[in-house]
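We close this part of the discussion by returning to an individual protein. The amino acid sequence and the C-alpha coordinates for this protein are reproduced below:
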Amino acid sequence: MFQSIILDRMKSTFFGELKSWNFSIYAQWLGILSILLCIILGIVNLFHVTLVVLFSALTIVEGVMLIFIELPFLTRICPVSEKFQAFTSIFESNYYRGLIYSIFALVTFLGCIFSATSLIAAGVVLSLTGLCYTFAGIKGQAFTSSSTLGGTGGNNDAPADAV
Protein backbone atom coordinates (compact mmCIF):
# COMPACT_ATOMS: atom_id res chain seq x y z
CA MET A 1 0.00 0.00 0.00
CA PHE A 2 2.67 2.51 1.07
CA GLN A 3 4.92 1.50 -1.84
CA SER A 4 2.02 2.02 -4.23
CA ILE A 5 1.49 5.56 -2.93
CA ILE A 6 5.19 6.36 -3.37
CA LEU A 7 5.24 4.93 -6.91
CA ASP A 8 2.09 6.84 -7.85
CA ARG A 9 3.62 10.07 -6.52
CA MET A 10 6.87 9.47 -8.43
CA LYS A 11 4.96 8.73 -11.64
CA SER A 12 2.81 11.84 -11.35
CA THR A 13 5.79 14.12 -10.69
CA PHE A 14 7.86 12.47 -13.43
CA PHE A 15 5.14 12.79 -16.06
CA GLY A 16 4.33 16.30 -14.85
CA GLU A 17 7.97 17.24 -15.38
CA LEU A 18 7.89 15.78 -18.88
CA LYS A 19 4.96 18.09 -19.71
CA SER A 20 6.81 21.15 -18.36
CA TRP A 21 8.92 21.78 -21.49
CA ASN A 22 11.85 22.54 -19.21
CA PHE A 23 14.88 21.27 -21.09
CA SER A 24 16.98 21.42 -17.93
CA ILE A 25 14.85 18.69 -16.36
CA TYR A 26 14.96 16.63 -19.56
CA ALA A 27 18.73 17.00 -19.55
CA GLN A 28 18.98 15.90 -15.94
CA TRP A 29 17.08 12.69 -16.71
CA LEU A 30 19.24 12.10 -19.77
CA GLY A 31 22.25 12.83 -17.56
CA ILE A 32 21.26 10.02 -15.21
CA LEU A 33 20.91 7.73 -18.23
CA SER A 34 24.31 8.96 -19.46
CA ILE A 35 25.92 8.06 -16.14
CA LEU A 36 24.53 4.53 -16.27
CA LEU A 37 25.52 4.01 -19.91
CA CYS A 38 29.02 5.43 -19.45
CA ILE A 39 29.80 3.18 -16.51
CA ILE A 40 28.12 0.02 -17.81
CA LEU A 41 29.29 0.28 -21.42
CA GLY A 42 32.72 1.43 -20.31
CA ILE A 43 33.12 -1.74 -18.26
CA VAL A 44 31.74 -3.95 -21.04
CA ASN A 45 34.14 -2.49 -23.62
CA LEU A 46 37.21 -2.90 -21.40
CA PHE A 47 37.60 -6.38 -22.84
CA HIS A 48 38.54 -5.26 -26.36
CA VAL A 49 42.05 -5.79 -27.67
CA THR A 50 42.23 -2.49 -29.57
CA LEU A 51 42.70 1.05 -28.30
CA VAL A 52 39.00 1.04 -27.48
CA VAL A 53 40.15 -0.06 -24.01
CA LEU A 54 41.60 3.42 -23.43
CA PHE A 55 38.34 5.09 -24.42
CA SER A 56 36.38 2.61 -22.31
CA ALA A 57 38.42 3.64 -19.29
CA LEU A 58 37.87 7.32 -20.15
CA THR A 59 34.13 6.68 -20.45
CA ILE A 60 34.07 5.13 -16.97
CA VAL A 61 35.89 8.18 -15.59
CA GLU A 62 33.39 10.43 -17.40
CA GLY A 63 30.51 8.52 -15.79
CA VAL A 64 31.98 8.92 -12.31
CA MET A 65 32.58 12.65 -12.88
CA LEU A 66 29.01 13.05 -14.11
CA ILE A 67 27.72 11.46 -10.91
CA PHE A 68 29.23 14.33 -8.94
CA ILE A 69 28.06 16.94 -11.47
CA GLU A 70 24.46 15.69 -11.63
CA LEU A 71 24.17 14.80 -7.94
CA PRO A 72 26.14 17.56 -6.16
CA PHE A 73 25.01 16.46 -2.69
CA LEU A 74 27.46 13.55 -3.09
CA THR A 75 30.40 15.97 -2.83
CA ARG A 76 29.26 16.64 0.73
CA ILE A 77 28.81 12.95 1.53
CA CYS A 78 31.87 11.47 -0.17
CA PRO A 79 35.36 12.56 0.82
CA VAL A 80 36.51 14.65 -2.17
CA SER A 81 39.18 17.32 -2.36
CA GLU A 82 38.39 21.03 -2.32
CA LYS A 83 39.75 21.29 -5.87
CA PHE A 84 37.40 18.59 -7.17
CA GLN A 85 34.47 20.17 -5.36
CA ALA A 86 35.36 23.56 -6.90
CA PHE A 87 35.67 21.89 -10.31
CA THR A 88 32.21 20.32 -10.12
CA SER A 89 30.65 23.58 -8.90
CA ILE A 90 31.65 25.19 -12.22
CA PHE A 91 28.88 23.18 -13.87
CA GLU A 92 25.94 24.85 -12.14
CA SER A 93 25.02 26.63 -15.38
CA ASN A 94 23.11 25.00 -18.23
CA TYR A 95 25.71 26.25 -20.72
CA TYR A 96 28.65 24.73 -18.86
CA ARG A 97 26.78 21.47 -18.38
CA GLY A 98 26.00 21.41 -22.10
CA LEU A 99 29.68 22.04 -22.84
CA ILE A 100 30.99 19.24 -20.60
CA TYR A 101 28.48 16.75 -21.98
CA SER A 102 29.44 17.71 -25.54
CA ILE A 103 33.13 17.28 -24.76
CA PHE A 104 32.48 13.89 -23.17
CA ALA A 105 30.39 12.86 -26.19
CA LEU A 106 33.24 13.83 -28.53
CA VAL A 107 35.76 11.82 -26.51
CA THR A 108 33.41 8.83 -26.49
CA PHE A 109 32.84 9.05 -30.26
CA LEU A 110 36.60 9.24 -30.85
CA GLY A 111 36.85 5.73 -29.43
CA CYS A 112 34.74 4.54 -32.34
CA ILE A 113 37.57 5.41 -34.73
CA PHE A 114 39.32 2.22 -33.69
CA SER A 115 36.26 0.00 -33.61
CA ALA A 116 32.50 0.55 -33.70
CA THR A 117 31.34 -0.52 -30.25
CA SER A 118 28.41 -0.01 -27.94
CA LEU A 119 30.13 3.17 -26.72
CA ILE A 120 28.23 4.81 -29.59
CA ALA A 121 25.06 4.56 -27.46
CA ALA A 122 26.77 6.40 -24.60
CA GLY A 123 28.00 9.05 -27.05
CA VAL A 124 24.52 9.57 -28.48
CA VAL A 125 22.92 10.00 -25.05
CA LEU A 126 25.76 12.30 -23.93
CA SER A 127 25.15 14.39 -27.07
CA LEU A 128 21.40 14.57 -26.44
CA THR A 129 22.03 15.62 -22.85
CA GLY A 130 24.41 18.35 -23.99
CA LEU A 131 21.82 19.58 -26.50
CA CYS A 132 19.07 19.68 -23.88
CA TYR A 133 21.23 21.71 -21.47
CA THR A 134 22.20 24.05 -24.32
CA PHE A 135 18.54 24.50 -25.36
CA ALA A 136 17.66 25.26 -21.73
CA GLY A 137 20.35 27.93 -21.67
CA ILE A 138 19.20 29.41 -24.98
CA LYS A 139 15.57 29.49 -23.80
CA GLY A 140 16.69 31.24 -20.62
CA GLN A 141 15.52 28.41 -18.39
CA ALA A 142 17.32 28.29 -15.07
CA PHE A 143 18.88 25.00 -14.07
CA THR A 144 16.12 23.09 -12.31
CA SER A 145 16.68 19.78 -10.60
CA SER A 146 13.99 17.15 -10.96
CA SER A 147 11.60 16.92 -8.02
CA THR A 148 11.45 13.17 -8.57
CA LEU A 149 15.18 13.05 -7.75
CA GLY A 150 14.78 15.28 -4.69
CA GLY A 151 15.10 18.68 -6.37
CA THR A 152 12.71 21.59 -6.67
CA GLY A 153 11.21 20.60 -10.03
CA GLY A 154 9.42 23.44 -11.76
CA ASN A 155 9.11 25.45 -8.53
CA ASN A 156 12.59 26.92 -8.71
CA ASP A 157 12.59 30.70 -8.45
CA ALA A 158 16.24 30.99 -9.42
CA PRO A 159 17.11 33.47 -12.18
CA ALA A 160 17.94 32.26 -15.68
CA ASP A 161 21.51 31.23 -16.45
CA ALA A 162 23.98 33.78 -17.62
CA VAL A 163 26.73 32.97 -20.07
Notes: Residues 26 and 132 are 7 Å apart (CA to CA). The helical segments are 2-18, 23-44, 52-70, 74-77, 82-89, 94-110, 119-138. The two ends are 47 Å apart (CA to CA).
